Amino acid sequence: MATPTPSPETYDFFIANSGLWSFLATVSTLIMVIITYISLRENVLARRSQLQPNIIIDFVIEYFYILQIVIKNTGNNPALNVKITIEPNINHPFNNIKFLAPNSEMRHPVDYLKEDSKIIEEYKILISYSDVYKKLHKNSYTINIKPLLQSYLNHKPNDLADIAKGLDGLVKVLESPYFRK
User: Fold this and answer.
1) Bridge partners of 138?
2) Using CA atoms, how far apart are residues 125 and 140, in angstroms rounded to an integer?
3) Which H or E run includes 23?
4) pLDDT tens-place values along the chain, 181 residues long
5) How far apart are CA 157 and CA 167, in angstroms?
6) Could you report how far apart the first and last alpha carbons of the chain are, in Å?
């Protein structure tokens, strides 16, 4: 079967409208350039968000008796110039951290828990920090530690080994230069 050949009129049509075909080729090329630019821009933004630091604050009870504040960088890049404000104000050394490595944490004792302790149950947290691209990030939230305290009150040391472990940890915390009561 033979391939059909275009007629001379078809050739004449293409030659007569070559400016139109050039214009359409140019427009389609520009559209492809725009689509490529948007795609690359989205990839860069996605990569930056994937690599940014993510700072969180939490409270834990260690060694059965010590309420500690924990600051963590759960992100994949370091956090720079980390500033933390906590209301009501508590004694902590995290006012100005120059560098917090990815996937690292810092802890500081807040209070020594006793059966009759009057512990503040709700804290307002404001965190600000920069990433390696010098972009400023700010987060604020409220932490209610009542469930943590109730869990602590329901858990008592089981045996002498638990008590010894708790006392060893307590000695380490009390020897910390940041523990001031």
Assistant:
1) 128
2) 5
3) helix 18-51
4) 677 777 777 767 767 777 887 888 899 999 999 999 999 999 988 887 777 899 999 988 876 678 888 999 999 899 999 999 988 888 788 888 999 999 999 988 888 777 666 778 889 999 999 988 889 999 999 999 888 877 776 665 566 666 677 677 767 766 766 555 4
5) 11
6) 98
The Cα–Cα gap between 127 and 95 comes to 10
Task: Name the 3-class secondary structure at 64.
Answer: coil
Q: What letters, b where the CB count within 10 A reaches 16 and e where it falls short, cover 50-88?
A: eebbbbbbebebbbbbbbbbebbbebebbbbebebebee
Assigned token pair, 107: 């802890």
Stated pTM of the model: 0.62
Peptide bond connecting 88 to the previous residue in cis, omega within 30 degrees of 0? yes
Q: Output the CA torsion sign for 145, 123, 105, 173.
A: negative
